[in-house]
Every structure is written in C-alpha cells, then in structure tokens.
C-alpha cells in the first residue's frame, strides 16, 4: 500500500524531547523518510520510562520505540573530527529539518535554525522552542508554560492548588502544529523551489488549545471569562468498578440526566439548568450523583445514559483503553513489530489503496552511521512566488460546527484556501449559542467570541439541508470543490444522501474528511461526543487530577488538538492527490487523536504492567515539580480568585542545585539520596515543604524572578484576565485585533507557528455573519439569478436570521 507522502519527503530530526519526536513521528507515519541525529549518549527519550523501568539506552524504551518507529539513527559528536561535515552532507539532502534545543548538536551555534536555512536554501526548517525564536530566553518547562496559558483557571478545585493537564499535554500538542507547519511550508516550497523557516512556540500552542478564546471573550464582553476552579456538574463519578464521565451541555440533556439519576425534582428547578448554579451547589449535587453511579458498574451507567443519548464514556486508563470495544472493533491498537508492545495506530484512516505507514522497528543508537539520504533531483520552481499562500486555489466546503470541526478548516482559511462554512437558519452552528447577549437581543447569534475565533477568513452560506433543493445545490458545489469536511454524528450525511460514494461520482478528485467523535463504524459510531467525552474515553482524563481525588478533564483541549490532527491528515490527502490525481475518504475520529497523545499509558501498561495514574502537578520523570502559593494578589476585576501561585519544574540535576541554592536548602543539596530524579520523586513531600515555605511570604513575580535568574524553570500562574497582554505573546504578535461587526474590535489568537514567507497577518477578514455570502456564492459559483436567490430566501432554504423556536 502506498503512503500519502510515498517516501518523497526526506526529514532530518535534529533535536530532543517529546514535541519534536511526535512531530517527526506524524510525518513518518504519513510516509516520510526520516533520520534521527543523536549525540553520543543518544536522545534522552531513549531512557524515558514513566513507570521507572530499567531501559537499555542503546535500544530505547517502549515510548521511544513508538515515536521513532521506521526511522534511522546516526550518532554525531560535534567535537569529533569530520562529524560536522558529515552532518551538513545529510542536512543538504533533506526536504524538512525538525529542530529543537537541548541536544549536543543543536546547542552548537553552527547548527542554529538560521544557519541551516542559509546553507540549505531548499529545505523547510521547523524550529520548536518554548517561546519562539528570537524571544528573550528564560528557563521553562512544559508545566511552567501551562501555568502561563491560563487553562488551569477552569480546572481542579478552588480549595486546592491550580492543576495542570496531565501526561505532558503541551509537548504532545505542539508536535501536531510542527508537523502541520512542515507540510504547509513544503507544499509552498514545491511550488517555489525555496524552503523557509517555520518558527513554532510551545507557549503559543498552549494558548490555542487551553483557554478557549478567553481574550476574545474578555474584550468582547468587557470583563474576563469568569472561570472558576470548580468541576462541572455532572462530570466524572465513581462506579462499582471504576469511573464514568458525562458532559451535559444542552438544556434537554440536563433534563434527561435528571431522569437518569432519578432526581425529577432537579428537572423542575429552573435554576439548575445553568452551569454556574450547578457549580455553586456542586458538593451537594455531586454527592447524590456519586451515590447513584456507585451502585452500578461503568458499563451499566454507560448503557443507561446512552439510551437517553447523553454524552457519556467510561474513563479509561492504560489497561482498559486497549480493551475498549471501539478500539478492538476498529483495529486502532497496533503492535510494535519487535517488542510486541501495544501502541495506538495512527489517528487517521484513509480508505482505498493509500494509507498510513505500518509502523516498523525503531533503530538502535547509531545503527545507520555512515549512511546518508539518497541524492534526489529537486523539482524546479513551478512558478510560485515565496509569499503565495500555500493553499490558494483550494476550495473547501465546511460542514462543521462547534470547535473541533471549524478549526480543521480554519488552518486552511488562514493559509489561502476558499473555505465556505455551511450552516442553516433552522440549525446554525451550535457555538453561536455561546453568545455574549444572553438576553437574546438583536444580533445575539453574531455575538459568540468562540465562533468569531475559529472562522475568520471564511465565507458563510446557509442551506436548509432538510429540503431537496438545498441538497441539489450542495452537489453542484461539490463539483467545483476540492474538499468537503464534516464533523456530524455518523448518520447525518447518510440521511442527507451525501455519501462519499455519491460525491465521488460527481467529483472523482474530491477529498472528504469525516471527523466524528468515535468514528463512522463500530459499536460506538452513534455515541454523542464532545471534547470532554473524548478526553474521558481516551485516557487524557485519567491522568489529569490529584492522586487522592477523582479524574479531572483538560477543559476541552481535545477539540483543537483533534481538529489540528484532522487538518494534518487533510494535508497528507492533498499531497497524495497531487501525485495520483484521485480523491479519497479520510476519517479522523476525535477519539483516535486523544488515544495517540495519551499513548504512553497504553505503552507502559503493555510493556511493564504499570497503570500510570494521576499525580496532581508532579511529573512522571523528573522532580520536584508543583504549584506553590505566594502572597495573595489584588485582582483588577471583582469576582476573580485572589490566590496567587508559582509553578516550578526542575528537569535536570543542574536546575536542582540552582533551586536549592536559591531557596537556601543546603541540606537538601548535600543529601546524596536527592542527587537523582528518582530520589527526589521519592522525597517529593519533604522537598515541597521547603519550597512552599520559601515561596509563601513573597509576591509571585518576585519568587519567579529569583528562580529564573538562577536558571530554574518557573512562572506565575497567569489568570485569564489579560492573557493576551503577557509580554511573551505580545512580542510574538500571537493575538491579532479583528473588527467583528457585533463584538467590536477583539483580539483573536493566531497560529502557533510563524512562517518566514507569511502570511504575516492571519485574520484578514472576520468570521462571516450568518448567511453573509449567500448571494455571492450562489450567483458567482452556481450561476443563479437574483430572482433565484430571492425565491430561496422566501422558501427559508437560505437566510440570514435564525429561525427562533428551533431546539439546537
């Protein structure tokens, strides 16, 4: 079977850490040829084991074997004679170089991203750093970057410290943005013959995936997003044999949930239909729900809730996820060909004779020393100019809603594609209902900061798909389009008669992307899913939370991460179509994305029989790490939390010595039992006490400044208020101001990667008003007359105002 890239993309992995490793893995699974360049001691990932198992660094642990499958390894000692010349020979033959700091090679100035770009002008260089290239360097770690992203503000409990998303969430998340940036830039390089530098920031990626457009909300509403560290009700609850998770979003879902848990009085209390009211009575309501779920098994609760079509899922861990019936039925669990360890299959499925690479073996350290990438004849410029947008000329029909769907096509809209966002006046995009005009006054449907944040640069079309004429119009649009993307439940497109088989007859070059929660076949295909449901089912929730409490959720981060994986899969499909001329069906379930970025849980259980669990803010592989309370602060807005906290993460022995010197802990520094990460993890409570005593009398900013000056990763937990104004993102220009007709001038987050050849402004037009481009699209693309448009509007097939009274 061919892969989408079919060995036509040559990648050199020149870095260290999870982020660059996952970025490279995504490209390799798509069919790239890749070489890992390692220092004499090998990539530190070779020695990683979250369960503490002994690892042979020459072979690498099971996580390394998952990430480095089907690649080659060469060892380069920068101090060795002739080593640099050999490395340059390799880099000069690469199409893409994935670069991150922290390896013996990338710490050499000669191999800085700008130097590689200058010497290899044809190559795309993807640099993944904490804050972006050229930014003031400061010590940082994934945990401290999470603290600077604001996502913690709606996670955990107000009576405990702020809580990070578990499982090195940010490092996995940024990998997909690096891989997408690589493919977009490579597509442009194929047209121009010129490579470029793609500058990816982990902090920017966390701002996109964690705080749910809080700055857009803040400026649009004139007040900050009032997230509180208080679990939603209901959320995650104990059962007789584990935990079960709910996500109750709509009013009807709440009423049905009340019947499910045998509390009809709750349904009659109108105040409980609001999230905030349930949160205020959280302890009372949660205790009653816990009592009901605890009397039943997880399977029994899921079965009963499914009868009500409620979003529900078992909360899987590293053991149960591999036995999940949907995983088994769809073959989403693969096996390492050498060790037999279970691991997730790639997160997308392409039907036909093109598919993801079947994972091969990972290389022993230096197994391919002396080999080089084959010389290839580079295509001359296809007439493109460096500043041309990479997806100009691509038309996408966007049948998506909420967050996970629209963010798929938003990437392409920012980078030049003509994206037509299709809704109806009978059932507009559901995220429009998350409006700042709660009184439902005129224009309320245009006052959603969340719709505004994921739909810039798109055109808006309304079509009532319940009417035959609307479906005929869609078929005519399909004939003129390159891609159709949808994230409905599996049966919706079928009910409209818009199957891939039918669409392919009309347009054999069409790529159809289907992005439902659990996929379009298998026992879970019809289950209702939100981001939370996917986090609960895929393992993300299991490792987020405190060890002595129930699982938490990341707060919806699976939506943008899943959507970004789907955008990457679509780029692979476009690359394959460019080569073959044929369209294809691509399935990108949200679940498979969550399953992949929580891969370490399945892998550690399969390899070592260890179920990784929740450990609050602590790391699986280094110590100390945690949140420490500082002097309370006076907030600029009433109602915001007054407690202030410092995030600290020690990732090396040198940082440990610096921490001890800074906080005056000479006895800790002198203790030989604390000289290793394992020893420090075993004595974490004692260490935490001394750190807490040092931080508590200080202002958070003062404590952070002292730690950073000593070289210790630290950050203040940044509240949602003013998130867009912190210096690190202002300097990057991450948020762009957009004039939205109803919200006014609001900041909207851009993309976590800066491209050397642009676009330098991503949000060139605001999100479309409902049906804003009806006449333009129907007349210019389909040749309808003005009278036709008027007739369609009179028949409510199109329109620009929601039909009130429709239940969303």
UniProtKB/TrEMBL annotation:
The keyword Membrane does not apply. InterPro entries: CoA-transferase_III_domain (IPR050483), CoA-Trfase_fam_III (IPR003673), CoA-Trfase_III_dom3_sf (IPR044855), CoA-Trfase_III_dom_1_sf (IPR023606). Keywords: Transferase. It comes from Novosphingobium pokkalii. SUPFAM superfamilies: CoA-transferase family III (CaiB/BaiF). The keyword Transferase applies. Pfam families: CoA_transf_3 (PF02515). GO terms for molecular function: transferase activity. PANTHER family: SUCCINATE--HYDROXYMETHYLGLUTARATE COA-TRANSFERASE. This is CoA transferase.
């Amino acid at each position: 079977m061919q892969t989408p890239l079919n060995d036509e993309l040559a990648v050199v992995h020149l870095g260290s850490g999870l982020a660059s490793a996952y970025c490279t893995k995504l490209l390799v699974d798509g069919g790239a040829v890749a070489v890992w360049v390692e220092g004499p001691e090998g990539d530190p990932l070779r020695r990683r084991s979250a369960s503490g198992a002994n690892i042979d660094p020459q072979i690498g642990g099971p996580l390394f074997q998952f990430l480095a499958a089907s690649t080659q390894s060469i060892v380069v000692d920068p101090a060795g004679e002739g080593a640099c010349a050999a490395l340059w020979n390799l880099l000069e033959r690469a199409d893409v170089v994935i670069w991150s700091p922290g390896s013996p090679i990338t710490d050499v100035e000669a191999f800085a991203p700008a130097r590689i770009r200058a010497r290899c002008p044809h190559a795309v260089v993807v640099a993944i750093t904490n804050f972006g290239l050229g930014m003031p360097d400061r010590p940082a770690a994934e945990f401290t970057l999470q603290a600077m992203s604001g996502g913690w503000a709606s996670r955990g409990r107000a009576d405990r410290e702020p809580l990070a998303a578990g499982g090195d969430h940010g490092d996995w998340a940024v990998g997909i943005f690096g891989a997408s940036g690589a493919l977009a830039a490579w597509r442009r390089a194929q047209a121009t013959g010129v490579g470029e530098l793609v500058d990816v920031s982990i902090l920017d990626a966390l701002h996109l995936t964690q705080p749910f457009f809080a700055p857009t909300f803040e400026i649009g509403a004139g007040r900050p997003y009032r997230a509180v560290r208080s679990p939603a009700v209901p959320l995650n609850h104990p059962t007789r044999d584990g935990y079960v998770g709910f996500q109750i979003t709509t009013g009807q879902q709440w009423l049905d949930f009340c019947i499910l848990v045998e509390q009809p009085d709750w349904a009659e209390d109108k105040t409980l239909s609001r999230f905030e009211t349930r949160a205020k009575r959280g302890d009372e309501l949660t205790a009653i729900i816990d009592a009901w779920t605890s009397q039943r098994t997880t399977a029994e609760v899921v079965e009963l809730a499914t009868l009500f079509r409620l979003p529900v899922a078992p909360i899987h861990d590293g053991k149960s996820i591999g036995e999940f019936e949907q995983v088994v039925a769809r073959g989403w669990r693969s096996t390492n060909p050498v060790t037999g360890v279970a691991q997730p299959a790639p997160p997308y499925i392409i039907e036909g004779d093109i598919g993801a690479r079947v994972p091969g073996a990972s290389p022993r350290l230096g197994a391919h020393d002396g080999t080089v990438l084959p010389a290839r004849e580079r295509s001359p410029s296809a007439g493109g100019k460096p500043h041309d947008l990479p997806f100009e000329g691509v038309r996408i029909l966007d049948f998506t809603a909420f967050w996970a769907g629209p963010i798929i096509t938003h990437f392409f809209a920012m980078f030049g594609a003509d994206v037509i966002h299709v809704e109806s006046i009978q059932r507009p995009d559901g995220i429009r209902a998350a409006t700042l005009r709660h009184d439902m006054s005129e224009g309320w449907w245009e006052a959603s900061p969340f719709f505004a944040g994921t739909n810039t640069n798109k055109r808006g079309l309304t079509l009532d798909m319940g009417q035959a004429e609307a479906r005929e119009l869609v078929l005519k649009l399909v004939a003129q389009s390159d891609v159709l993307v949808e994230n409905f439940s599996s049966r919706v497109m079928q009910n409209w008669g818009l199957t891939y088989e039918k669409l392919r007859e009309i347009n054999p070059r069409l790529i159809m992307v289907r992005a439902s929660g659990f996929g379009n076949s298998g026992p879970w295909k019809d289950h209702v899913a939100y981001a939370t449901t996917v986090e609960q089912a895929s393992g993300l929730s299991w490792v987020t939370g405190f060890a002595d409490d129930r699982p938490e959720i990341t707060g919806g981060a699976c939506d943008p991460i899943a959507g970004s994986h789907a955008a990457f899969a679509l780029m692979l499909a476009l690359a394959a179509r460019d080569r073959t001329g044929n369209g294809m069906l691509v399935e990108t379930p949200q679940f498979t994305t969550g399953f992949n970025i929580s891969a370490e849980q399945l892998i550690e259980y399969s390899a070592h029989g260890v179920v990784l669990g929740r450990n609050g803010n602590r790391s699986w592989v280094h110590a100390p790490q945690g949140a420490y309370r500082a002097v309370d602060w006076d907030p600029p807005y009433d109602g915001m939390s007054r407690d202030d906290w410092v995030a600290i993460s020690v990732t090396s022995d040198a940082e440990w010595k610096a921490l001890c010197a800074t906080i005056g802990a000479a006895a800790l520094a002198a203790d030989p039992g604390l000289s290793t990460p394992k020893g420090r993890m075993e004595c974490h409570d004692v260490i935490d006490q001394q750190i807490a005593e040092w931080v508590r009398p200080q202002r958070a900013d003062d404590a952070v400044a002292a730690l950073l000056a000593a070289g210790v990763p630290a950050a203040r937990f940044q509240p949602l208020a003013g998130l867009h104004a912190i210096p690190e993102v202002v300097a990057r220009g991450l948020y762009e101001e957009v004039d939205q007709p109803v919200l006014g001038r609001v900041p909207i987050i851009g993309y976590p990667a800066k491209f050397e050849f642009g676009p330098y402004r991503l949000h060139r037009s605001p999100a479309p008003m409902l049906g804003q481009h009806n006449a333009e699209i129907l007349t210019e693309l389909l040749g309808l007359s003005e009278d036709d448009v008027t007739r369609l509007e009179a028949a409510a097939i199109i329109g620009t105002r929601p039909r009130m009274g429709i239940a969303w």
